[in-house]
Specification:
5-stranded antiparallel β-sheet; 4-stranded antiparallel β-sheet; globular; mainly beta; 199 residues
Length: 199
């Protein structure tokens, strides 16, 4: 079942509005000054975040909106906004990601290190060099850029229905995320509120 049909099916089963505007949808959330910790929970606390740090004010969509998640994206930024190695080395020790929608864990213990700058992507849509010029005097793997966002393209269509809470949790065995920020973005297909024929 394609992502458009799955979203329509879920909305219809829940009695959600189906007359909204279809769109590409990206939801993002930032954790500021994460420091050293074993777990980051995104889409949980929104207090004090600017529109550039999140595009939500609660961890659920409006009553007339829904979304299919196709891609999970994570990045760590220094205080000056430059990209940093995710967890500053913790990727080698391993990160796992959980996605919870409602009371159901729809992604469980998904390892992220294979999609980081130092591993082979699950989906293989990213080139081995990840857009970085390789120094011929060293191995391709050693010369890769380590400060890359982590991107995972999901093989299944995960639906966030209207008015259902969701969270994304990243767990590790202890990582130093520093005093910058860590960002999680969910990208995919969605339906947003449409006021009908009035404009």
């Amino acid at each position: 079942m394609g992502q458009v049909n799955k979203l329509k099916y879920v909305d219809r089963k829940l009695g959600a509005p189906t007359g909204g505007q279809q769109t590409t949808r990206v939801l993002w959330h930032t954790i500021v000054n994460p420091g050293t910790q074993n777990e980051l929970q995104f889409f949980n606390s929104f207090q004090g975040l600017t529109p550039g740090q999140t595009n939500l004010n609660q961890n659920k969509l409006d009553s007339s909106e829904s979304m299919v998640i196709k891609t999970l994206w994570f990045a760590q930024l220094a205080a000056d906004g430059s990209l940093q190695e995710f967890g500053q080395g913790g990727v080698n020790g391993g990160y796992v990601c959980d996605v919870t929608v409602g009371n159901q864990k729809v992604v469980k213990s998904l390892p992220l290190q294979f999609n980081s700058g130092i591993g082979e992507p699950f989906d293989r849509i990213h080139g081995m060099n990840n857009g970085v010029t390789v120094d011929p005097t060293v191995s391709a793997l050693a010369s890769r850029q380590t400060a890359n966002p982590i991107e995972v393209r999901l093989l299944t269509n995960i639906v966030i229905p209207p008015q259902v809470e969701f969270t994304v949790t990243v767990r590790s065995t202890g990582s130093n995320f520093g005093d910058g920020s860590v960002v999680c973005a969910l990208a995919g297909y969605g339906q947003i509120f449409s006021a009908g024929g009035s404009f």
